[in-house]
Amino acid sequence: RLQKAYPDLFSDLEPARLYGGPIPTNFVARSYADGVLLVGDAAGQVKPFSGGGIYTSLVSAGLCAETASEALAAGDLSAGFLSRYERRWRKTIGRELKRSLGIRRFGLALSDREVDRVVGVLSSRRLQEIASRHADIDYPSRVLLRIAAALPALGPLALISLRRPVATLRLLQSALFS
Q1: The whole model's pTM is what?
Q2: Which of 29, 48, 178 is nearest to 106 (CA)?
Q3: Res 175 pLDDT > 50
């Protein structure tokens, strides 16, 4: 489409291959069935906040291999036996993925003006110091929880929350406490 819209810019462009597809931002209902275990994008084990999935896929792959090994040793590939895989990955990374989904939904619900206010607040030196000290690309909610504890600097966000109290409470509750 860009090539058609801007032929002068892309006149020499010759695509070799085209790849693409949606990035899942929520889990599948079940990541197991009789004789089946889903890992990574197939299971929706993607960080909704960033769209990344290498770390979560590797963690889940390890848990999948552990569960598959146990199932083969027991001679039981039933969904009931394989369900332990889902319990394991949800215990290990599920909470963070759920928090990130809530944070993403909260961010998507903001107007452009509200986003500008949030960016302004998050630009404060104190919050940047907290972020740089505690940042973790694989567990972003940890730094966000520490930033939220710095409430005086987050005063402008309270106004957004008051304007949309029910939606904000639901999003924050799912992001932080589930």
Answers
A1: 0.67
A2: 48
A3: no
